[in-house]
Amino acid sequence: xxxxxxxxxxxxxxxxxxxxxxxxxxxxxxxxxxxxxxxxxxxxxxxxxxxxxxxxxxxxxxxxxxxxxxxxxxxxxxxxxxxxxxxxxxxxxxxxxxxxxxxxxxxxxxxxxxxxxxxxxxxxxxxxxxxxxxxxxxxxxxxxxxxxxxxxxxxxxxxxxxxxxxxxxxxxxxxxxxxxxxxxxxxxxxxxxxxxxxxxxxxxxxxxxxxxxxxxxxxxxxxxxxxxxxxxxxxxxxxxxxxxxxxxxxxxxxxxxxxxxxxxxxxxxx
Length: 270
Description:
Elements (H helix, E strand, L loop, with lengths): L2 H6 L19 E5 L4 H12 L3 E6 L2 H10 L8 E4 L5 H15 L4 E4 L14 H29 L2 E6 L3 H4 L5 H21 L4 E8 L5 H6 L3 H10 L8 H12 L10 E4 L7
Parallel strand pairs: 1-2, 1-4, 2-3, 4-5, 5-6, 6-7
Helix pairs in contact: 2-10, 4-5, 5-7
């Protein structure tokens, strides 16, 4: 189990080591939603590679504790409070990050909120909030970092999707619409930014065993349903997603772009 996994309350995760990617050392990495869940493990994983990590979140206490826990890495991760649904605040935060450490070289659009909802309960306001937190900010983060990447002739943008819309999971129609949109956004960005040497991909997590999912939805019955649908009969941990993210961010994935990479243990659904 990694230090942050233990710190953040994840279950035991034995016998796992990340590959080392020399190309990630000193690389400027920005991670959204980095204060908890998959995001916190991503922050740790990149910090352990020697990357210069900035991360955004609205959970101040957890984020400050995470940054403190990793202060002895080659580059101590830096936390910025940012509500990603506030585009003015996002613009300011993005400018601050790039002023501090130069152009972002790897953007990991991780932040999202999978709130369950019934169709009859959805209002126009709820629709707008869902799009803002699950889709809109991915584009504007990419837009903000693209000029620096274009000037450098290279860069990586990684968007976190979801297996939910591939499986049609109940009570998530708006979340699934946003996550499906991410895959379309990825392909569009990859096509338009590819001539400048910028790679854009989607990482599609399956039923990841995070504290939030375990607390709210992954009952013993749901866990058995997930395992029954997977080709591999083992639960997926945030470190598995981080391992894929590190690879795609590194130069080892230099010819990978415009695609979806699943980390779902072959979850085939019903």
